[in-house]
Structure to design on (468 residues):
C-alpha cells in the first residue's frame, strides 16, 4: 500500500515545486518498494541472472567453446560469435522476464488494493495501470503452465501401455503408443509424465530408425521430441533426466538443421544438466558425442565421460589407471557396490532397475564401441567382457552381440569410423547408438523378465529421480 501511495504521489511529483516534499515522497516510495518487494526474491532473481550470465557467457566462452569449436571443420571465430550472440540473447530474455515479473507483481499489488480505495484513487489507479503496464495488467491474469494434480484415466492407460511396449521392445507399436499418448495429451496437456513420455517415444522412433528403411519424414521425430521434452521441463523442473535428454535431442536438431546457435545452446544445456545429475547426464551427452569423428574434441570428451561415469558411480576414486590394473575384479566389485548403494543417483543411473533392466550391459557395450572407434582394441575387449559381470546378462536379448563385437573388434575400427549420412544410415553395421539397440539395449526385457516385472506408476518411479 505504501508503495502504491508512493507511486501515486510520485507521479504527481513533477507538478510540485516543493523540493522537501519530493524528498519525502521519494522516501515513501522507497519504503513502499522495500516493503512490497521484499529483498529476498529480488536478490535471488538477481543472483540467478548473474549465475545464468556467467554460465551462458563467461564459462562457455572460456572453457567449453574451446572444446566445441576446436571440434571440427567449423570456423572457430564464427562459432564464438554465435555463442556470444546466443548468450546476449539469453541475457535479453532474462531482462524481459524480469521486467515482466516485476510488472506483474506490481499489478498484483495494485489489484489487491483496487476495491479498498476511494473512487478518485480508483480512477487514478486505472490511469496508472494503463500508463505503466497496460499489457502486463492483462497478462497478469494468465496462469503459468502448471502440472495437473491428478492423472486422467486416459493418461494412466497411455503411460502403462507405453511402458509395456517399451519394455517389450515393440518398436512397431510406436504408432499406437504415440496415438495413445497424444490423445491423452489432448485431454490434459498439463500431465508431466505424458508430456515427457512423448519426448522419449519420438526419440525412440528416431534413434532406432535403422529398423525401417530410410523415411523422408524421420526428422520430424527429433523436432517433436525436443518440443515435448522442453514442455516436460516446464511441467516438472525437478526431473534432471529430461534436461539431459532435451539437450541431447536439441544438439541433434541443431546439427541436422545446420543451426549452430541451437547446437551451441544445447551443448551448454547438456553441461548444465550434467551438474544436476552427472552419472546420468554424462551418459546422455557422451552417447551423442561418440558419433563424432575421433579427432574432435567432443568425441574425446564423450570418451572421457565414460571413465568419469565409472568413477562417479563408485564411492572411492576409480581412475582409468586403477581400473586397468585389474579390470574385471574391480568392475565386479563396482557392480556389487552399486547394487548395495543407498544413493539413488548412483543406484538408478549406474545399476539395473525396473526402468532400465540392462543398463549395465548397455553402458559397457557402448563404452566398448567408443573405444573400438578410437582404435583402443584391448580396452574395448575388456569393456565388452565387463557386460557379462551382470547376472542379468543371461537374460539379455542382445547377449550374442558381445562375442561378435569381440571377434570383429579389429575390422570394426574402420566400420565405426566410416563417413555416413546419419539421417539415412548406410547399413546395419552400426555402433550401438545408431543401431536397433540404441534404446532397447538398456530398456528391453526378455519375455521371462517381463512376466516377472509388474507395472510401476509414474509416482512410484519418479520420486528418487527427483531427489536432486
Ligand atoms: C546405457 C543405458 C541406456 C540407454 C542406451 C538408454 N537409456 Fe533410457 N534410461 C536409462 C537409465 C539408467 C534411466 C533412469 C533410470 C531411473 O530413473 O531410475 C533411463 C530412463 C529412461 C526413461 C524413463 C522415464 C521415466 O518416465 O521415468 C525412458 C522413457 C527412457 N530412458 C527412454 C530411453 C530412450 C528413448 C532411449 C534411446 C534414445 C534410451 N532411454 C537409451 C538407461 C538407458
Amino acid at each position: 500500500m505504501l508503495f502504491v501511495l508512493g507511486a501515486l504521489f510520485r507521479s504527481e511529483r513533477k507538478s510540485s515545486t516543493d523540493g522537501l516534499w519530493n524528498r519525502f515522497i521519494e522516501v515513501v516510495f522507497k519504503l513502499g518498494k522495500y516493503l512490497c518487494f521484499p529483498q529476498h526474491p529480488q536478490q535471488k532473481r538477481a543472483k540467478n541472472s548473474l549465475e545464468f550470465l556467467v554460465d551462458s557467457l563467461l564459462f562457455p566462452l572460456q572453457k567449453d567453446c574451446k572444446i566445441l569449436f576446436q571440434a571440427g571443420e567449423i570456423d572457430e571465430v564464427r562459432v564464438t560469435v554465435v555463442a556470444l550472440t546466443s548468450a546476449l540473447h539469453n541475457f535479453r530474455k532474462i531482462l524481459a522476464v524480469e521486467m515482466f515479473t516485476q510488472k506483474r507483481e506490481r499489478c498484483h499489488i495494485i489489484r489487491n488494493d483496487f476495491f479498498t480505495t476511494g473512487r478518485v484513487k480508483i480512477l487514478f489507479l486505472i490511469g496508472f495501470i494503463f500508463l505503466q503496464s497496460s499489457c502486463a495488467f492483462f497478462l497478469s491474469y494468465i496462469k503459468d503452465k502448471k502440472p495437473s494434480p491428478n492423472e486422467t484415466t486416459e493418461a494412466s492407460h497411455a503411460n502403462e501401455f507405453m511402458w509395456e511396449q517399451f519394455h517389450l521392445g515393440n518398436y512397431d507399436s510406436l504408432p499406437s503408443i504415440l496415438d495413445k499418448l497424444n490423445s491423452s495429451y489432448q485431454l490434459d496437456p498439463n500431465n508431466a509424465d505424458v508430456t515427457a513420455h512423448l519426448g522419449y517415444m519420438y526419440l525412440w522412433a528416431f534413434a532406432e530408425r535403422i529398423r525401417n528403411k530410410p523415411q523422408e519424414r524421420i526428422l520430424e521425430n527429433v523436432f517433436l521430441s525436443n518440443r515435448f521434452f522442453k514442455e516436460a521441463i516446464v511441467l516438472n523442473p525437478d526431473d534432471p533426466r529430461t534436461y539431459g535428454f532435451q539437450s541431447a535431442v536439441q544438439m541433434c536438431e541443431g546439427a541436422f538443421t545446420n543451426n549452430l546457435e541451437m547446437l551451441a545452446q544445447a551443448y551448454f544445456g547438456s553441461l548444465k544438466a550434467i551438474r544436476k545429475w552427472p552419472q546420468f547426464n554424462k551418459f546422455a551427452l557422451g552417447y551423442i558425442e561418440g558419433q563424432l569423428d575421433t579427432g574432435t574434441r567432443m568425441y574425446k570428451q564423450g570418451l572421457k565421460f565414460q571413465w568419469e561415469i565409472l568413477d562417479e558411480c563408485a564411492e572411492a576414486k576409480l581412475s582409468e589407471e586403477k581400473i586397468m590394473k585389474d579390470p574385471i575384479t574391480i568392475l565386479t566389485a563396482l557392480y556389487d557396490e552399486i547394487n548395495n548403494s543407498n544413493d539413488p543417483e548412483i543406484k538408478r543411473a549406474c545399476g539395473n532397475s525396473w526402468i532400465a533392466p540392462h543398463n549395465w550391459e548397455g553402458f559397457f557395450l557402448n563404452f566398448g564401441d567408443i573405444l573400438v572407434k578410437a582404435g583402443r582394441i584391448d580396452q574395448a575387449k575388456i569393456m565388452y567382457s565387463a557386460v557379462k559381470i551382470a547376472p542379468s546378462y543371461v537374460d539379455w536379448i542382445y547377449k550374442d552381440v558381445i562375442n561378435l563385437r569381440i571377434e570383429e573388434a579389429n575390422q570394426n575400427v574402420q566400420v565405426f569410423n566410416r563417413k555416413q549420412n546419419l539421417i539415412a544410415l548406410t547399413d546395419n553395421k552400426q555402433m550401438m547408438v545408431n543401431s536397433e539397440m540404441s534404446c532397447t539395449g538398456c530398456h528391453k526385457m526378455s519375455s521371462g523378465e517381463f512376466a516377472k516385472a509388474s507395472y510401476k506408476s509414474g509416482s512410484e518411479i519418479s520420486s528418487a529421480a527427483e531427489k536432486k
About this structure: The pocket of heme C is lined by residues 196, 200, 203-204, 207, 241, 283, 348-349, 353, 355-356, 359, 362-363, 438-439, 441-443, 461-462, 465 (CB under 6 Å).
